[in-house]
Design brief:
One of its GO terms (molecular function) is microtubule binding. Residues 58-322 form the Dynamin-type G domain. This is Dynamin GTPase domain. Keywords: GTP-binding, Motor protein, Nucleotide-binding. By secondary structure, this protein is an alpha/beta fold. It is 53% helix and 12% strand. It has helices spanning 34-51, 74-82, 132-144, 187-199, 220-228, 249-255, 276-286, 302-341, 349-373, 387-404, 415-424, 435-449, 451-475, 480-514, 522-531, 534-543, 569-623, 629-632, 638-668; strands at 2-8, 12-18, 29-30, 63-68, 98-104, 111-118, 121-127, 155-161, 167-171, 204-211, 235-240, 264-266, 548-551, 557-560. The strands form three sheets. The chain has a nine-stranded mixed beta sheet with strand order 7-6-8-5-9-4-10-11-12, sandwiched between helices. Strands 1-2-3 form a three-stranded antiparallel beta sheet, with no helix packed on it. It has a two-stranded antiparallel sheet with strand order 13-14.
Length: 671
């Protein structure tokens, strides 16, 4: 005897019950309920956001994504939920992401249509239950081609039909490990990349379809889902083909060796020409038989799967909505602020000229901060733009290198001085040091280091050129049509300054060779300290007691003296005196070179910033294209126009998304 009664499985349903003492079979057909009435607006909102392509703004939507290895019955599960026939056959049946939007309807006539983007235009194809598989194949071929390859362009299937749950799911291609005839060699990599893209977001619920015939731990879909959901908190597993492998199934779904946090649902799919009602009846009969009867009723059957998916989806949407609202607001605020920062479209030469003067003025202010004042607030994280510190580092390194440079022609102590004295000797009193000898030694030392200052000034100005071009680029980034002219003016200016600076540095070096002069009292202090060791040194050379002598007290360290014994005492005294004099004076020379170059560098930088840059830019803009550079600013560059249009479209999309979410948030606040 059969009775009709009402049951509750999260949605109202009709149950046909056999009241005989040995059988209790229910055929459940979901109908519209107040619970569905609350779910539908949530799904409509998310679907509208998806149609608006809000995900292109980096805002993830709560989604059920269906994954599974090929031939595990994934399409059959979706057919049972949607109560329609999907494409079947050899190889990959699903070659594009299939967005299945199921909607409960009270109408006796189902409404089914497809929509997808093709060649930049949205295409809508209406169909019916009889021809739905053909329509999907046709649309898939249009998107992915008629071969066996895949595409990540989605195809949306809308099903409004009585007896279906309110669900939106994305069905992805089944995982294949080995390419077959006609499939790309990298088909596995293509499908894997597509699956990972869809299941990685934390807002995604993963519906993992498994076959009861295999060890769950070997399933590729399990391996992928565990990569992004290690604890399984957003993974629900549906086990198919239970009629083919009933033994041990209870152990599999209770042991949970693969971390399925949302649990398992075991189902029997439709076989052959069974109607969906017949398939559900056979499913319930199957789970009444041993050993499947040992499995709890709460995890078996397509109705239970529909119930769980509906509840999980509603919970996820409700939980994510506040965050979606917040992210939409943040994105819209950021896009609006960025749009407002863009330069307004200029309509007159006067506006363009004022804008150009503003660019030059802003560049000047930035360079004063960076190169003169040591204010790097405009580039806090870019240490290369902390210019006063970098210039100080470069100058300190130059000074150290200059003082450490080899200062003698020969390695033997005092031999440079002895050779010069022998060549500069003349008829006269023996205890006078010829001034020409001192200048000759000085000239040798200056010649030995003369390339260092020139190299330093070139490297320093190369660095300043980099800073100048960075600032010019930053301040003119909204006007690429004149950016090249501004940068060319900057490079030309640095080239001129570099030429002048090199000539000036060469003059500074040459001046040191012309005369020996200083008013610095340190020279006499150092000379007096060092010359005190002259007598003891000469005595040590003539004594033949040792081949080395410790001159640490005079700043010469331990020196070899055996090579000096062949020279007379008078020449040795003159050579030692000359050594002391040139060593004492060389300290002054090096410091004077460093100080002079440092002062000249500061002077050049200030001139560059205060007057030369503005003049050079003016000349460049006037001389190039007959002074038409200012007029170029009236024509917005393609890149800037594209950026402006992109921001406007983004703001428009986000506003529409905000409006779509606002109503449902208010309605859902109590729920």
């Amino acid at each position: 005897m059969l009775e009709v009664c009402e049951t509750s499985v999260g949605m109202s349903s009709l149950a046909i019950v056999n009241t005989s003492p040995h059988h209790h079979v229910q055929i459940k057909a979901p109908i519209i309920s107040s619970y569905d009435d609350r779910i539908r607006p949530l799904l409509d909102t998310v679907d509208k956001l998806r149609n608006l392509n809000v995900m292109s703004e980096g805002i993830q939507l709560p989604t059920i994504v269906v994954v599974g290895d090929q031939s595990y019955g994934k399409s059959s599960v979706l057919e049972s939920l949607a109560r329609i026939s999907l494409p079947r056959g050899e190889g990959i049946c699903t070659r594009v992401p299939l967005v299945m939007r199921l909607q409960q309807s009270s109408s006796s006539e189902p409404e089914i249509w497809l929509d997808y983007e093709l060649y930049g235009k949205n295409k809508v194809d209406k169909t019916d239950e009889e021809h739905i598989a053909v329509a999907i194949r046709k649309a898939t071929d249009a998107i992915a081609g008629s071969g066996k390859g895949v595409s990540d362009t989605p195809l949306t299937l809308h099903v409004m039909k009585s007896g279906v749950p309110n669900l939106t799911m994305i069905d992805l291609p089944g995982i294949v490990r080995i390419a077959v005839d006609g499939q790309p060699e990298n088909i596995y990599e293509q499908i894997s990349a597509m699956i990972m893209k869809y299941i990685e977001p934390q807002e995604t619920i993963i519906l993992n379809v498994l076959s009861a015939q295999v060890d769950f731990t070997t399933c590729e879909s399990i391996r992928m889902s565990r990569q992004v959901d290690k604890t399984g908190e957003r993974t629900l597993a549906v086990v198919t083909k239970v009629d083919l492998a009933p033994e041990g199934l209870l152990q599999k779904v209770t042991a949970n060796d693969v971390s399925i946090g949302l649990g398992y649902v075991c189902v029997r799919n439709r076989i052959g020409n069974e109607t969906y009602e017949e398939a559900r009846l056979q499913e319930e009969l199957l789970f009444k038989k041993h050993p499947l009867s040992m499995i709890e009723d709460e995890i078996v059957g397509i109705p239970i799967l529909a119930q769980k998916l509906t509840q999980i989806q509603a919970t996820m949407i409700t939980r994510c909505l506040p965050d979606i609202v917040q992210r939409i607001n943040e994105k819209m605020d950021n896009s609006t602020a960025e749009l407002n920062k863009l330069p307004k479209v200029m309509t007159s030469t006067r506006e363009a000229l004022f804008t150009l003067l503003h660019i030059i003025g802003s560049t000047k202010e930035s360079l004063i901060k960076i190169l003169v004042q040591g204010d790097f607030s405009e580039f806090p994280d870019d240490q290369s733009m902390h210019s006063t510190a970098r210039l100080a580092d470069m100058l300190g390194q130059f000074s150290t290198n200059l003082q450490a440079h080899p200062q003698t022609v020969t390695d033997e102590f005092m031999m440079d001085e002895i050779k010069v004295l022998e060549e500069c000797k003349s008829i006269g009193l023996p205890n006078f040091i010829p001034r020409s000898a001192f200048l000759a030694i000085l000239s040798q030392r200056v010649d030995a280091i003369h390339t260092k200052p020139v190299q330093f000034i070139r490297e320093t100005l190369d660095y300043i050129e980099g800073v100048l071009l960075s600032v010019l680029t930053k301040n003119s980034e909204n006007f690429p049509q004149i950016q090249s002219s501004l940068k060319r003016a900057g490079r030309n200016l640095i080239t001129k300054i570099k030429e002048q600076s090199v000539n000036r540095v060469i003059e500074i070096i040459e001046m040191e060779k012309l005369t020996d002069y200083t008013c610095n009292p340190e020279y006499m202090t150092v000379y007096t300290q060092k010359i005190a060791a002259q007598g003891s040194f000469i005595t040590a050379v003539q004594s033949n007691n040792s081949n080395i002598y410790n001159l640490n007290a005079s700043g010469f360290e331990i020196v070899q003296i055996s090579h000096l014994r062949k020279y007379d005492a008078q020449l040795l005294r003159q050579a030692f005196d000359m050594k002391v004099r040139i060593t004492s004076y060389w300290i002054i020379v090096v410091r004077r070179i460093v100080d002079s170059i440092a002062l000249y560098l500061q002077f050049s930088v200030k001139n560059l910033v205060n007057s030369q840059l503005q003049k050079e830019i003016g000349e460049e803009l006037v001389n190039s294209s007959g002074g038409g550079e200012v007029e170029k600013m009236l024509e917005e560059s393609p890149s800037m126009a594209s950026k402006r249009e992109k921001l406007k479209n983004s703001i428009k999309l986000l506003k529409e998304s905000k409006d779509a979410v606002a109503a449902i948030v208010d309605q859902n606040s109590g729920y």
